[in-house]
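Re: that chain you flagged

S.,

Sorry for the slow reply, it's been a week of failed gels. I finally had a moment to sit down with the sequence you sent. For the record, here it is as I used it:
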Amino acid sequence: MEVSPIATIVELVTEVVAPLITEPYELVDVEYEKMGSDYVLSILVDKPGGIAVDDTADLTDIISPALDNIKPDPFPDQYMLEVSSPGLERPLKTKESLEAAVGKYINVSLYKNLEKSKIFQGDLVSFDGQELVINYLDKTRKKTITIPYDLVAKARLAVKL
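Prediction finished late last night. Pasting the structure tokens below so you have them in one place:
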């Protein structure tokens, strides 16, 4: 399987940026995508109590020069750097982030169907590193499902409407 240039950029940026984002901040995710005619490099950071505008400005001042110093320049095009909070639907990319989300309302997408569905949204009851247990509503019935971690394609916090 060929590694996409975007995956390479995300890995490289993560390697450079991760050591710069120190307590109380936490690097949540790095995304590089085309929006309209522009490329946007999004660096999602969080801290207990949430991120303020001053935080993103301070972090941008630390991150931007570090990105400019990567040799050779990995970016094929001009890009905009966006340092922001992950927001309410924060991605849960690691086992640690899932453990921290126990008790919260989450959305999980699976690689293959489980009980005739690939997407589950509900309360994360427990996660032991191997399996997620989620309470969810199937139409009007409350159900519980156990999902093996290796079936999880994507997980994120969700907003209950």
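What I noticed first: The helical segments are 5-17, 53-68, 95-100.

Talk soon,
D.
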